[in-house]
Amino acid sequence: MGYGAQAHRAQERNPGLRCPPAGYRPGMKSSEIRWNDEARGKILDDADRVLREAVVDLAGSGAMTSDEAFAALTGTLKDKFIDWEPGPDLRTYADAIANGDVETDEA
Predict the structure, then answer these.
(1) Given CA atoms 83, 87, 90, 95 in this order, what sign does their dihedral have?
(2) What is the pLDDT, as a whole number, of residue 76?
(3) What is the pTM of this model?
(4) Which listed residue, 5, 24, 50, 56, has the most CB atoms within 10 A of its CB?
(5) What is the pLDDT of residues 74-102, one digit of tens each?
(6) Cα(31)–Cα(14) distance, integer angstroms
(7) What are the backbone dihedrals phi and psi of residue 106, each rounded to the nearest 5 degrees, phi first?
(8) Dihedral over alpha carbons 27, 30, 32, 33 (to 10 degrees)
(9) How far apart are CA 48 and CA 66, in angstroms?
(10) In this structure, are 21 and 42 located in the same domain?
């Protein structure tokens, strides 16, 4: 018997009993709310793809300094992620763009 049926039977036995809303699962802690492993993997794969496309596109757009590449990457990526903060890895990619070290399909 599912939780909904149990709640319904309890209501029948005790008409004054207040039942929780449908879908309520007793004992769920907020720390247990998270993406499953399959969804988590997809989220990371999608994030890697977005980063890769931004780096490769920028690398194929012409010569620029590391600071220009960093600013352009930040401008491209900041609206694609929640709570965006550029980190040291972004500087690594900006340096690679400036040094011509990124392989593009055009090369």
Answers:
(1) positive
(2) 95
(3) 0.68
(4) 56
(5) 999 999 999 889 999 999 999 999 999 99
(6) 33
(7) -80, -20
(8) 120
(9) 21
(10) no
- Does 23 share its domain with 48? no
| Torsion from C-alpha of 81, 49, 88, 78, nearest 10 degrees | -30
Distances (CA, A) of 60 to 57, 63, 90, 107: 5, 9, 17, 9
Number of domains the chain contains = 2
The confidence band for 104, taking pLDDT boundaries of 50, 70 and 90, is: confident
Residue 73 structure tokens? 């990457």
**Distance of alpha carbon 52 from alpha carbon 90, whole angstroms:** 11
**What are 1-44's pLDDT values in tens digits?**
565 566 556 566 666 666 666 666 678 888 889 999 999 999 99
